[in-house]
Amino acid sequence: MDGEIDAADIADDPTLVSLADRIYGIKIAAVQPVKPRDANSVLATPAAVTEVAPPTDMLVEVIAPAQPATPAVPLPEPGMNLELPPLPTRKKSPLGFLFGGGLVVCVANLFGVFSTAFNSLCESGTCRGAEQTRLNLMSPHKIGESDGWSYSLLSESMNGVGGTAGGIGIPDIVALVVLLGGLFMVTRKK
After folding, report:
1. Closest CA relative to residue 180, chosen from 99, 93, 106
2. Which of 9, 147, 171, 177 lies 20 to 30 angstroms, CA to CA, from 50?
3. How far apart are CA 34 and CA 40, in angstroms?
4. What separation in angstroms does the CA of 31 have from each of 10, 12, 24, 28?
């Protein structure tokens, strides 16, 4: 019964046939080979059908379909025009343009873009060094002097962070942080 014994061996042993009948409810009879020409006469006699297991129709439960809580909504007619509600619109805040524009100006200043625009106020070589192309944010009133200019991020003689040892100073860092924070606060969803 565990798969190691052939079915023909069980049919030959009356003890195993009795065990199979008592334990599993299986009726085992010896197989008698039938030739195909004689099969019609054997199959024509109806044999009594014995059901080994309980009927399977008792194991099926039929559940009725759930009724919707609300009545069915009628479908719109093909020619009917449905109007959508107006979409909510947000007004553009002038503070967003102010913070965004300030951020662009601050980043452009870090790369020395404004040195060409204000070159007539303080020429390179006479009033300031050749690589001093960034405006100092703390001293815009000294634009005509050497103290009003600093080294940009693109200059080769100064790089890094921190005043004289670098190309970006504390006022630039504060300006970037404040402008980024303000832009974030203005543009976030309410």
Report:
1. 99
2. 9
3. 10
4. 11, 10, 19, 9
In the chain, the amino acid numbered 112 is G
Q: Residue 107 has which token pair? A: 């980043």
Between CA 129 and CA 120 the distance in angstroms is 14
pLDDT digits (tens, 9 = 90+) for 90-137: 777 888 899 999 999 999 988 888 887 777 777 766 777 777 788 888
Find out whether 134 and 152 touch, Cβ atoms under 8 Å: yes
- Compute the mean pLDDT over every residue in the chain, rounded to the nearest whole number: 75
Alpha helices in the chain (DSSP H): 7-12, 14-19, 39-44, 94-110, 170-187
pTM surpassing 0.70? no
Contact 144, 122 (CB under 8 A): yes
- CB distance 149 to 122 below 8 Å: yes
